[in-house]
Amino acid sequence: MKAAVIVFPGSNCDRDLKRAYEQAGLQVQMVWHKDTVLPKVDIVGIPGGFSFGDYLRCGAIAANAPICQEVAAHAQRGGYVFGVCNGFQVLTETGLLPGALLRNAGLKYICRTVGLRVDQTDSVFTEAYTKGEEINIPIAHHDGNYYADSDTLDRLEGEGRVAFRYTDNPNGSARDIAGILSENRRVLGMMPHPERASESAHGNSDGARLFAHLTKALSEA
Ligand SMILES: NC(=O)CC[C@H](N)C(=O)O
User: Fold this and answer.
1) Residue-wise pLDDT tens digits, 100-119
2) In a mutational test of the pocket of ligand 1, which residue from 51, 102, 141 has the highest number of ligand atoms less than 8 Å from its CB?
3) Domain ranges, ordered by start, for the chain
4) Which residues of this protein are catalytic (predicted)?
5) Domain 2-220 belongs to what topology?
6) Predicted TM-score (pTM) of this structure
7) DSSP labels, 149-180
């Protein structure tokens, strides 16, 4: 199974995501944002970081990079895409996921491990968990406050597209939302970083389960 990890100027979790994918058994190719061809892969990863220095809005400039048209085409063909933190911000800016990530309610950068509740287990990203299970995953962001209008929030909830919620909302996110899925559940965006909870040196393997299951599910898909 093959994965691509997109790299923008200012990405800083690209190699962490590559490592988490590789440890789970995926073959990874790094893809520069100016590339206009996406290699044939089973999943695209959009990593965390500070793409283009977070200028304009987090993820807004990255969303207009040439490779993002290819990522959108891949998603429209039913391909899998996984955006972590800045990657989630990029996915909302491209319109592949609804809503926006606003400045944290407390206006401060938050870097700590938080509790998440798994709300939807019916996706390749979340099947490893049980519904309602509480896991611990680190966050590191200043713009993680998920916003969408109430109709969109109702639709996300009604369609079972809320993947993860914060157990103790750290950033003001609407309805405690920490991660959402696309309509076909093949695109996941989440603010917490499962790749930072994926090996013994991290002291937490709650994220490793996501990656291990992902590889298995992709090979069976
Ligand atoms: N860790 C990250 O991806 C950070 C995302 C973004 N730069 C923010 O701080 O909100």
Assistant:
1) 999 999 999 999 999 999 99
2) 141
3) 2-220
4) 85, 193, 195
5) Rossmann fold (3.40.50)
6) 0.98
7) -HHHHHHHHHTT-EEEEESS-SS--GGGEEEE
